[in-house]
Amino acid sequence: MTDTNRTGALDERATPDSVAVRAWLTGLQTQIADALGAFDGTPLATDRWEREAGDKLRGGGCTRIIEGGQFFERGGIGFSDVSGDTLPPSATAARAQLNGRGFEAMGVSLVLHPRNPYCPTVHMNVRMLLATKAGEAPVFWFGGGMDLTPYYGFEEDAQHFHRVCRDSLAPFGADLYPRFKRWCDEYFFLKHRNEARGVGGIFFDDYAEGGFDQAFAMVRSVGEGFLKAYLPVIEKRRATPYGEAEREFQAYRRGRYVEFNLVLDRGTHFGLQSGGRTESILMSMPPSASWRYNWQPQPGTPEARLYTDFLPVRDWI
């Protein structure tokens, strides 16, 4: 009997149940979309899609989208379930043993961009990838996490977000939160800027520890913790007054978000390299962003405090 390892080698005690994962993911998408629609006062639109015959990928998905809402300037919650004959380079770069395998990738991914600059952008995703080859045992792994990107920082918001992340992982081992937090801090980092994207959260990939049932339970706990982590933060900040100066700074920092997603994000690269649906892959982009040449905030301002007090890596709880 073999054990699981970080590359997702399958534990023979449990076979990956893609039907159960798919059912949970679609239910999670509906739960989150309904809650956010109620919060905004605007139901999220539904865009169902299927891959066309002859495409590199097979399958489809559903995107729940809001644009120009009362609270959310833009937000998308996408479910996709696609398969292909070969894994893209972004998936096999560190896993040579997976070359030549077909795959099925399914997941829920969301990014929410509130209009109010005092309300942070948030990202969350949970996914499973199953790699198969005739005559060989399937290989699976889970990935995902959530992270918070404020424009104007509040310590209690970052503390609450991280506390929910920690509590979601606690039943599966005290080592997971510090391990996944560190992974998040390292992953959501703009190397070309030498700065973090936000205040972090948790991030994990290639996860199959304890076999399918244990790993799936952990991922469910993360996904179901999202609303507990984010809704109290935006409820507290939604009525904070703001002006044009705050909106300009928000647009400037959104530019960093765009840079990360296009230059560094593995999920974006996987989707584009595998022939994924571009509109769904890029739904994470903010509705507006800006860039300024060699700009720095004035010392002592709330904008400067984001850089000095919130972007540097720190322990929030």
TrEMBL record:
Names of the cofactor(s): a divalent metal cation
SUPFAM superfamilies: Coproporphyrinogen III oxidase (SSF102886)
Pathway entry: Porphyrin-containing compound metabolism; protoporphyrin-IX biosynthesis; protoporphyrinogen-IX from coproporphyrinogen-III (O2 route): step 1/1
A Pfam family annotated for this UniProt entry: Coprogen_oxidas
Keywords from the named record: Cytoplasm, Heme biosynthesis, Metal-binding, Oxidoreductase, Porphyrin biosynthesis
Matching InterPro entries: Coprogen_oxidase_aer, Coprogen_oxidase_aer_sf, Coprogen_oxidase_CS
Protein's GO biological process: protoporphyrinogen IX biosynthetic process
GO cellular component, one term: cytoplasm
Keyword Disulfide bond annotated: no
Recorded coiled-coil stretches: none
Protein's cellular compartments: Cytoplasm
Principal location: cytoplasm
Molecular function terms, GO-annotated: coproporphyrinogen oxidase activity; metal ion binding; protein homodimerization activity
Catalytic residues identified in the record: H123
Record-listed a divalent metal cation binding positions: H113, H123, H162, H192
Entry EC number(s): 1.3.3.3
Region (Important for dimerization): 257-292
Domain of life from the UniProt record: Bacteria
Catalyses which reaction(s): coproporphyrinogen III + O2 + 2 H(+) = protoporphyrinogen IX + 2 CO2 + 2 H2O
Protein family: Belongs to the aerobic coproporphyrinogen-III oxidase family.
Assembly, per entry: Homodimer.
HAMAP family according to UniProt: Coprogen_oxidas (MF_00333)
Name of the protein in its database record: Oxygen-dependent coproporphyrinogen-III oxidase
